[in-house]
Amino acid sequence: MIDKNNPWHKVPVGEDAPDIVNGIIEIPQNTRAKYELDKETGLLKMDRVIYSSMYYPHNYGFIPQTYCDDNDPLDILVLSQISIVPMCLVEAKVIGVMRMLDGGEMDDKIIAVANNDMSVKHFNDISELPAHYIKEMRNFFEDYKKLENKTVAVEEFQDAQTAKDIIRKSIADYNKKFQ
């Protein structure tokens, strides 16, 4: 039985999904705190302070009413010129995906831009981002768990169409699991 007050289940994926989705921010950019949605209570909990002296390069959260192989909602990185507060609902335009293996398990990260931030809204595909943005994301996710003796392997970044296909599948998987 699911808790309909939990934001994972209560908030819709978005009317224009998979092009524009609702993102629920758990972790603002430029922080070392690893917050995540507690699936039981729907509250935000501090999982840990990341072991390395690195900071999340972009706002990080999840897409509601999606489900992935890791038993969690689909992760999303939302690029913006500002740090977005935790549990904020953000309209996010999907521009790509970072495919990665976390502890040998597939763990896709959808890359999006805050649709209401004019400094990034003009990006339509990950190929349009400055190369340094990609390097920062890759570096962070490859290294942030090293001091925990955990392995993360970042595969290639892929385009908006691939990201949208992943979102469609995660919506279908959610409906199959919870409806």
From TrEMBL:
It catalyses: diphosphate + H2O = 2 phosphate + H(+). Mg(2+) 2 binds at residue 75. It is found in: Cytoplasm. GO terms for biological process: phosphate-containing compound metabolic process. GO terms for cellular component: cytoplasm. Keywords: Cytoplasm, Hydrolase, Magnesium, Metal-binding. Mg(2+) 1 binds at residues 70, 75, 107. It comes from the Bacteria. The keyword Metal-binding applies. GO terms for molecular function: inorganic diphosphate phosphatase activity; magnesium ion binding. Gene3D superfamilies: Inorganic pyrophosphatase. Its cofactor is Mg(2+). Substrate binds at residues 34, 48, 60, 144. Its EC number is 3.6.1.1. Homohexamer. Belongs to the PPase family. Catalyzes the hydrolysis of inorganic pyrophosphate (PPi) forming two phosphate ions. This is Inorganic pyrophosphatase. It comes from Roseivirga spongicola.
